[in-house]
Amino acid sequence: MAHRDHGARVFYYDLLVRLRLVGLWPWLALLGWGAVARTQEPLLFRSYGVMLTHQALWFGATILLVPLHLTARPRLDLLRTAISSIVLVSLVGLVQSAAAWVLDVAYPGAAYVADLGASCARFVLVWLPASLGWISAPVASRPLLGRLGGLVVSLLLVGPAWRIELPLLLGASSLASLGVLLAAASGRASIPEPDRLSTRCQ
Predict the structure, then answer these.
(1) Rounded distance, CA 171 to CA 102, Å?
(2) What is the pLDDT of residues 115-168, one digit of tens each?
(3) Contact 137, 84 (CB under 8 A)
(4) CB of 17 within 8 A of CB of 83?
């Protein structure tokens, strides 16, 4: 139990350090970016399924993910890196959806709660493979390959993310995320153990 509590504290402080390093200004910039898009969005487009404000917030939130992941420290615990990726992407996805809801309420026009939930879910599903590839790469023997693999899959999902059905996107994201984790696990297995490595160096 004590070991589990220690692991939870380490995870909490790691997330807190990342948020503090990024600071408040990028989050405010995300809201400002969304406000500019909302003031220029023709609401008629929404009847055709074109959510310009949501898509603009997606773009800003994607940029915000970069510094949050650049502050990641190499870990050997693959499970913890997976949880960290899910929490980070979900946090940014929730924030961009909440920003869209605030802007829908603040400016004339209906607030589409169902669309906000779908926006959050699609954001998480699209960028989870890239997030897993970036954070889990330090535990693999070929980190560049892991990072590029997850990023390529996420970029391929960005285009059709708003057009395909959510279950199909869930399946594609789950398979890609599992592939990234399996690649990281196999890469970790190929890394020599410290005692063996030291013996070889001698």
Answers:
(1) 30
(2) 788 889 999 999 998 888 776 655 555 556 666 778 888 888 888 888 888 889
(3) no
(4) no
How many other CB atoms are there within 10 angstroms of residue 107's CB atom?
14
Helices in the chain by DSSP H: which ranges? 2-22, 25-39, 52-70, 78-106, 113-136, 143-158, 166-189, 194-201
Contact (CB, 8 A) for 38 and 53: yes
Q: Alpha-carbon torsion 65, 67, 70, 75, what sign? A: negative
The 3-state DSSP class for residue 10 equals helix
**Whole-number Å distance between alpha carbons of 38 and 47:** 15
53-70 per-position pLDDT tens digit: 888 898 899 888 888 877
Q: Enter the pTM of the model.
A: 0.78
Rounded Cα gap, residues 100 and 105, in angstroms: 9
Give CA–CA dist 154/30, Å, rounded: 21
65 and 129 Cβ atoms separated by less than 8 Å: no
Burial of 156 (C-beta count, 10 Å sphere; 0-12/13-18/19+): middle
